[in-house]
């Protein structure tokens, strides 16, 4: 039988970290979302919403992470997540991945600047961004989300969350394809050359 009080107590440090990390991630997204509003969309620009697969995967990940932070004992479902407390090694690896993903997201936002948007569309004076993490991959923000899901799986080996990783990959791949086609049509050879020099989510892949 699971000692719920013991589980919650032993994970206090990790849960506090996740709370602080979540606040930092939210602050970064809010700051750059407001900043991106300064640049208007091109007239007659097509707006493409995030792919449903990506929305489902990220929403599920947020739900699992929030539940783990608030009440980790509630995830102790036989057949889904049977480990009482993740080892120190698992916690360190998971925390490291979350921090690296947060850094990648912040750098991507910084380089993309006012061209960022939750929905996909072209903005005034749109240009190819190939600095910072964009020098290696074309969609570092999508990479950051998948790194977060993978990192969370290290200390929350939950079947439902594991299934979301390929769903996220598929959803972000479809979004990336639409975005790349849109930018290739708008920016021409410049963006086409950029595609040939970078990976989509992983450098050189």
Q: What is the fold's blueprint, element by element?
A:
Blueprint: H1 4-10, H2 12-36, H3 52-70, H4 88-112, H5 140-155, H6 159-187, H7 189-197
Helix pairs in contact: 2-3, 2-4, 3-6, 4-5, 5-6, 6-7
Gist of the model:
The chain is mostly helical and 205 residues long. It is built from seven helices and no strands.
Structural features:
205 residues; elongated; mainly alpha; 7 helices
Describe the overall structure.
The protein has 205 residues and is mainly α. Helices cover 63% and strands 0% of the residues. The protein is built from seven helices and no strands. It has helices at 4-10, 12-36, 52-70, 88-112, 140-155, 159-187, 189-197. Helix 6 runs antiparallel to helix 7. The longest helix is centred in the last third of the chain and has 29 residues, at 159-187. It is elongated. The mean pLDDT is 87.
How much helix, percentage-wise, in residues?
Answer: 55-70%
Distance between the termini: 46 Å
Structural class: mainly alpha
Over all CA atoms, what is the radius of gyration?
Answer: 19 Å
Number of strands: 0
